[in-house]
Design brief:
By secondary structure, the protein is α/β, with parallel strands linked by helices. 45% of the residues lie in helices and 18% in strands. Helix 4 packs parallel to helix 5. Bound molecules: NADP nicotinamide-adenine-dinucleotide phosphate. InterPro entries: NAD(P)-bd_dom_sf, Sc_DH/Rdtase_CS, SDR_fam.
């Protein structure tokens, strides 16, 4: 049986992935929420691990007994928006960068050596990394960093396939807080299907829903001034 470790498995996309892989693999499902971890621990083929991805010692301690992994999925993350760019909230910026970017470094340090030759590393970024979006100075920067990190690891890692996931909007507790329209939002089930299919095909860039992400990728090709002009419409 393949061994798959998933961070952020207690909710949303990570939970969908944990439930999918537990049908055919052995899953290490990681998170902080005690109740959700207890629930996961009752499932077949699943070991729930309590860890905080912003605390290297917590990762090392929770994962000390893991010997090898076939697939490492770094999915845990958080989103907070900067409401007033002029009066920049440095503490918020630090929180988001720690949760979404520095955490990847901490997880990689402990867990990447455990990934087998010909195994897979999957980093969940966001389609927010494609373009500068309003109020996303912290979240977007953390995800642009995550994408760069994944792509740069893909250059250097010879025997491990690296995939970066760029979801559009997925209906999860994270996006339930959003106070703006979420065009073409998909369910966790749809996200799970797109991500697991991409992982099975060892795709380098897993992005969905295509009708949304392809528009963003196209806009990304335009001169930055065109996007800055168009983005004024989004802000209104
Ligand atoms: N939903 C979307 O539209 C969307 C779009 C693009 C990208 N993404 C990315 O997809 C990933 C999953 O998001 P989601 O929508 O599924 O969110 P979610 O339902 O809020 O789940 C977030 C998960 O991350 C875990 N987590 C957060 N901070 C953590 C920490 N410090 N230590 C350990 N675990 C931590 C949470 O665990 P605990 O609650 O147990 O701490 C939870 O399991 C994130 O990286 C997010 O940025 C989501």
């Amino acid at each position: 049986m393949k061994r798959v470790l998933i961070t952020g498995a207690t909710s949303g996309i990570g939970r969908g992935l944990a439930e999918h892989y537990a049908q055919q693999c052995f899953v290490y499902a990681c998170g902080r929420n005690d109740k959700a971890l207890e629930d996961l621990a009752r499932k077949d083929n699943t070991i729930a691990l309590k860890l905080d991805v912003t605390e290297p010692a917590s990762i090392a301690s929770a994962c000390q007994h893991i010997e090898t992994l076939d697939i490492l999925i770094l999915n845990a993350g958080n989103c907070e928006y900067i409401d007033d760019a002029k009066h920049f909230d440095g503490a918020l910026f630090k929180r988001v960068i720690e949760a979404n970017l520095l955490s990847l470094g901490y997880c990689l340090e402990t867990l990447l050596p455990k990934v087998k030759a010909s195994g897979q590393l999957v980093i969940v970024s966001s389609s927010a990394a494609f373009l500068p979006l309003p109020r996303a100075q912290a979240y977007g920067a953390s995800k642009a960093g995550a994408s760069y990190l994944a792509q740069s690891l893909a250059v250097d890692l010879q025997d491990i396939d690296v995939s970066v996931v760029h979801p559009g909007f997925v209906k999860t507790p994270l996006t339930a807080k959003n106070d703006f329209p979420m065009p073409m939002a998909v369910s966790v089930e749809q996200a799970t299907k797109a991500i697991t299919k991409g992982i099975a095909k060892r795709r380098k860039d897993i992005h969905f829903p295509k009708r949304f992400t392809l528009i963003l990728k196209l806009l990304q090709l335009l001169p930055v001034n065109v996007w800055l002009f168009l983005s004024k419409g989004i802000k209104r």
